[in-house]
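To: structure subgroup
Subject: Chain for Friday's discussion

All,

I'm putting the inputs and outputs inline so they're searchable in the archive.
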Amino acid sequence: MLFIESILIQLFLSVLPYEIQMLMNVFLILLVYVVNWRVFLKAGEKGWKSLIPFYNEYVQYKFLKMKDLYRVVLILQFCIVPVSIMFANIKNIFVTVFTTLILILMVLAIVYIDFTSCSRLATSFGRGKKFAWGIFIFRFLFTTIIAFDKSEFKTPQNELRIK
């Protein structure tokens, strides 16, 4: 779930008693698995593939024909923390500014690729750019709509590759 959705859900749940909060959290986690399972089935993949961390993202990027970009996202995600740690204690202002710019560029690249995958997911199910923005901002809500509506998956025509 995206950060914004998590905050909104936790704000809503915070007014409820603890036991109900826990039940709602378990329900939401199970619902996320069901939604992902259904989206994978609609895309022609086996549902169990949606349950395995990292592999489910790889499969999703594969059926969206963005397999190469998944590798880029994975590398960038695993490089952000080590780069931050390596340069955290250096007092040189040039190195600090340079490292900060590199980290910002890495995050922007991840966000851009993520939005591209949201856009391809929306268009694969016959939706437009506004729906893609909805998936990007409120992923769980809009993915739930895709999972339970009558839309059919149409494989994207072209493979997005790194040149």
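Points worth raising on Friday:
The helical segments are 3-13, 18-42, 55-63, 67-86, 93-124, 129-137, 139-148.
The radius of gyration is 18 Å.

D.
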